[in-house]
Amino acid sequence: MTPTLDEILAGAIPFAVPLRVPFRGLHVREGMLIKGPSGWGEFAPFDDYDNERAGRWLGAAIEASWGTWPVSIRDSIEVNAIIPDVDSSRAGLLARETIGECGCSTIKVKVGRSLADDEARVVAVRDALDSAGVDGKIRLDANALWSLDQAITSLRRLRSYGIEYVEQPCADLNDMVRLRSEIDIPVAADEVIRLSGDPESVNLTGLVDYAILKPMTLGGAHATLRVAQSVGVPVVVSGSLDTGVGLSTSLAAAASLADLPLASGLGTGTLFERDLTDPSVLPRDGRIAVRRYSPDLDSLLAAADASSDERATWWRERLGAAYASYERSASHRRVEG
Ligand SMILES: [Mg+2]
């Protein structure tokens, strides 16, 4: 069932939640929660997402609040923790915390701005894993910041720290393919999928080793299963700095995939000062339980209060623009049958 825009806006609450650590340049995560007959959904596209891509995010929110999720075949999901682009001492502190309190043994480290800083950050994380006696994995995410030459130089330097894979090292897929022939680190694609005009038509067979699938950016859990079918390589499910409400969709997607060979990128709850859900969606023993996480009323009221009238209006307008795009794509799917 497709709700009307008025029905969605009637149950939409803007939120602003402070982050403990700046991420993507953000200190506060903003978005809207929407309430429908199935429960809560989250609409929180980043500012650089255009209406078409924001429309897919809205599709994920509508699936959560008005629709259904695929059947789960797992009751918990192994997740990685994430270390943002912070200095090495902060990186070490965050890594020790997440290993000790959340039990994560796979840690994703953001890289790409300066090789010296990247290496210091990776060393700090490897030290934290080693000193905890954890045979852990480090995955890198460059968010397309490197040229091909920079990627080759950087990864030849960083490979000795034991790298599980590097995510979106370069913007251009052809550069990623060439890089893959130059280094012995597996390569994963993220932006080339989630920023694509049509993620369900992206096929990466023989081009990269893994596909990072972010359910909120693809249109929800069912859309994620479809992309996993068509993308042609093993997939890693990942979040989009979502509150526990949005993470529920990604957990549902991860829980329903037939093949889930690696830890999912869903341990981002540690980046929030306070989550909207109770319990908050933090890993324990490196895993998160699969369930629908709903907002806690006090946290939701505080987060709604923290969103200014001006931002609330901006988000309502953004949702309206995304809805127009969502409707176009939904009718496109109907026409195609
Ligand atoms: Mg990424």
How would you describe this structure in keywords?
Enolase-like, domain 1; TIM Barrel; 2 domains; 3-stranded antiparallel sheet; 12 helices; 20% strand; binds magnesium ion
In the CATH hierarchy, the architecture of the largest domain is Alpha-Beta Barrel
User: Poorly predicted ranges (pLDDT <50, ≥5 residues)?
Assistant: none
Characterize the main sheet. Answer: 9 strands, mixed
Radius of gyration, in Å, reads: 19 Å
Can you give the helix content as a percent range?
A: 40-55%
Q: How would you sum up the global shape?
A: globular
Q: What's the structural domain tally?
A: 2
- Strand composition percent: 15-25%
Mean of residue pLDDT?
95
Main structural class: alpha/beta
Order of helices and strands: HEEEHEHEHEHEHEHEHHEHEEHH
What is the subunit arrangement here?
A: single chain
Describe this structure in words.
With 337 residues, the protein is α/β, with parallel strands linked by helices. The chain folds into two domains: 5-69 and 298-336, Enolase-like, domain 1 (2-Layer Sandwich), CATH 3.30.390.10; 76-295, Enolase-like C-terminal domain (TIM Barrel, Alpha-Beta Barrel). It is 42% helix and 20% strand. The chain has helices spanning 5-10, 51-66, 88-102, 115-131, 148-158, 173-182, 191-194, 215-218, 221-230, 244-256, 297-305, 309-336, and strands at residues 12-23, 26-36, 39-43, 76-83, 106-110, 137-141, 163-167, 187-189, 210-213, 235-237, 264-267, 287-289. The strands form two sheets. Strands 4, 5, 6, 7, 8, 9, 10, 11 and 12 form a nine-stranded mixed beta sheet that branches. A three-stranded antiparallel beta sheet has the order 1-2-3, with helices on both faces. Strand 2 and strand 3 (39-43) form a beta hairpin. Helix 2 crosses helix 12 (309-336). The two termini are 16 Å apart. The mean pLDDT is 95. The structure holds magnesium ion. Magnesium ion binds at residues 141, 143, 167-168, 190, 212. Magnesium ion is lined by residues 141, 143, 167-168, 190, 212.
